[in-house]
Design brief:
There is one protein chain. By secondary structure, the chain is of the alpha/beta class. The chain has helices spanning 4-9, 22-25, 28-34, 52-69, 80-86, 98-118, 135-148, 165-176, 187-190; strands at 15-19, 40-44, 72-75, 122-125, 154-155. A 5-stranded parallel beta sheet has the order 3-2-1-4-5, with helices on both faces.
Length: 191
């Protein structure tokens, strides 16, 4: 995995950034917005968020930062049942276990599918911002999906929590009064 500046210097096409939430997006978005050589759009796809009020709140915060940082935002909502179908049989897994792997796969597969249909060559995900998320695991899932697309759409492997990325996201949340949730999204993580 290259460092962020080296990787961004090699980008020759718009990036589709999958955003799990506004706080995590506030690690890469300010940096992407300041890069003159790249363009990016944000894709909000998170059927794992429980309940509808929480989903609406998190989406509203992403829409808020879209206005602040002037990025195009695409939203796809397949509903919580899509997530529950994907993780069926894994309800008793610990946080960070097999259920989370299936959830990461679900969201990254949707991002790749959207990117492919939209002509994007690159996908990145804010899932790697949280210190509670396993960036090597998330990036390995992205590599597997990249192979399925024959490299026509590639994951840009970042660990957005590094180099003060997580701290910066907290600072931006304070600056812009962004809601910071205290659980990943599903009712399993909430408990």
């Amino acid at each position: 995995m290259l460092n962020k500046s080296n990787m961004l210097a090699e980008i020759d096409s718009r990036i589709l950034l999958h955003a799990c939430c506004a706080p995590c997006a506030l690690s890469p978005v300010p940096e992407f917005a300041s890069c003159k050589n790249i363009g990016y759009d944000v894709f909000f796809y998170n059927p794992n968020i429980f309940d509808e009020a929480e989903y609406a709140k998190r989406l509203g915060e992403v829409e808020k930062i879209a206005q602040i940082f002037k990025f195009r935002l695409f939203i796809q909502n397949d509903g919580y049942s899509k997530f529950l179908q994907r993780v069926e049989g894994l309800e008793n897994e610990p946080e960070g276990g097999g259920r989370c792997v299936k959830c990461f796969e679900l969201r990254l597969q949707a991002a790749f599918k959207f990117a492919s249909a939209g002509g994007y060559k690159y996908v990145a995900t804010t899932l790697t911002t949280s210190p509670h998320k396993n960036a090597p695991l998330i990036n390995s899932i992205g590599r597997k999906i990249t192979a399925e697309y024959g490299d026509s759409v590639r994951l840009i492997e970042f660990d957005f929590k590094k180099n003060n990325g997580f701290k910066n996201s907290i600072d931006y949340c304070r600056k812009y009064s962004i809601y910071r949730q205290n659980y990943c999204g599903c009712h399993f993580s909430k408990r």
